[in-house]
């Protein structure tokens, strides 16, 4: 039986060893198992594309989780009835005001952490759609750079955000509200972008699950076991 696409010298050598030594051979990086899988992928453009898409699934899943966390914190901070900014404005208790300020600073710090995780994974995932997301987010941060800097938030070259915790902790509640409160333009625009990222990334995760399953079934499982079985018979 003729098997096409298997033309690597290393693969031929491994197949010879496999057929003469049987299953006792150690499964290292040059073993029949690894070489069959890698050779099938490298010699089949469709398989190679499936492999790349399957590998990016985890980055998208992490980006989606972080985006959802960011979106949830943004909505909590900007809620017109329940946000800490509304509660602080409705009380005359100075201790309560301080507690609300501490809570706001904590939520903002958590928001930055999840935001940075999202950015890092979108960058790792790559793709034109993600590049557009990153470009739009970078522009938003530049547009509101002065307001963000006033509460200790600055941008890094890689698109993530840096935080001066001391500046954030000492920021006045009104200043924080101007950035993340119910009427804040920045918060509303960032929430809108987050909604889009969550929606698009969730769709991508679902699609990549299909690619991943297709790759597993056709490349790293079915074809692999079929080809390996041919040589097992000769061992």
Descriptive key words:
single chain; 235 residues; mainly alpha; two-stranded antiparallel ribbon; 10 helices; elongated; disordered N terminus
Secondary structure layout plus pairing:
Blueprint: H1 9-21, H2 32-42, H3 45-78, H4 84-89, H5 94-125, H6 128-143, H7 145-150, E1 153-155, E2 161-163, H8 165-170, H9 173-180, H10 185-232
Antiparallel strand pairs: 1-2
Helix pairs in contact: 1-2, 2-10, 3-5, 3-10, 6-10
Molecular structure report:
By secondary structure, this protein is mainly alpha-helical. It contains ten helices and two strands; from the N terminus they run αααααααββααα. A two-stranded antiparallel sheet has the order 1-2. Helix 1 runs antiparallel to helix 2. The longest helix is centred in the last third of the chain and has 48 residues.
Fraction of residues in H or I helices: over 70%
Low-confidence parts: 1-16, 22-27, 219-228
Query: Number of DSSP strands?
Result: 2
What is the radius of gyration computed over CA atoms, rounded to a whole number of angstroms? 26 Å
Which class of secondary structure composition applies to the elements?
mainly alpha
Number of helices: 10
Short summary:
This protein has helices spanning 9-21, 32-42, 45-78, 84-89, 94-125, 128-143, 145-150, 165-170, 173-180, 185-232; strands spanning 153-155, 161-163. The chain is an all-alpha fold. It is elongated and about 60 Å long.
């Amino acid at each position: 039986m003729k098997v096409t696409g298997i033309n690597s010298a290393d693969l031929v050598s491994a197949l010879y060893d496999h057929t003469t030594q049987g299953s006792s051979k150690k499964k290292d990086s040059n073993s029949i198992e690894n070489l069959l899988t890698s050779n099938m992928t490298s010699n089949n453009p469709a398989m190679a594309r499936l492999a790349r898409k399957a590998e990016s699934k985890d980055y998208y899943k992490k980006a989606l989780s972080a985006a959802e966390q960011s979106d949830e914190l943004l909505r909590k901070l900007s809620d017109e009835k329940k946000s800490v900014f509304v509660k602080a404005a409705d009380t005359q208790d100075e201790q309560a005001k301080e507690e609300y300020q501490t809570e706001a600073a904590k939520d903002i710090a958590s928001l930055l952490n999840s935001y940075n995780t999202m950015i890092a994974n979108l960058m790792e995932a790559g793709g034109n759609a993600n590049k557009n997301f990153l470009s739009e987010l970078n522009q938003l941060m530049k547009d509101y750079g002065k307001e963000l800097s006033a509460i200790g938030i600055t941008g890094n070259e890689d698109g993530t955000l840096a935080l001066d915790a001391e500046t954030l902790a000492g920021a006045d509640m009104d200043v924080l509200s101007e950035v993340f409160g119910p009427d804040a333009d920045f918060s509303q625009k960032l929430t809108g972008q987050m909604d889009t990222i969550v929606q698009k990334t969730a769709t991508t995760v679902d699609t990549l699950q299909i690619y991943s399953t297709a790759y597993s079934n056709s490349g790293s499982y079915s074809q692999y076991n079929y080809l390996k079985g041919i040589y097992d018979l000769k061992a």
